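Support request, please re-run this one:
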Amino acid sequence: MSNYFPHYRKKIEALARREQELIRAIQRGENERKIEQAAAAVHATRAAVLRAARSQLAPDGRDEVRFRRLSEQIEACLKTPVGAVVAEFRARRDEA
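Re-run finished. Output below.
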């Protein structure tokens, strides 16, 4: 697949869409199960965006510090519970 060129912008757009869905679910007062599902989608998409950013780095070692930093961010993202994502978005709503 020498002609394949991945579009990482799609992942960023998907993250924005999923975040908006979570915000709307919280604003509407949806039941907790729907809010948790939306938060789980945001959680998974955040990790996918970070993985996509990491995959764009050249494997020659020039970006080793950035690669390590992105790997740490991915680990931190995956360790974050879905409930923390819900709390983050509820806090954003309360600030607005």
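Residues 9-95 form one domain. The mean pLDDT is 90.
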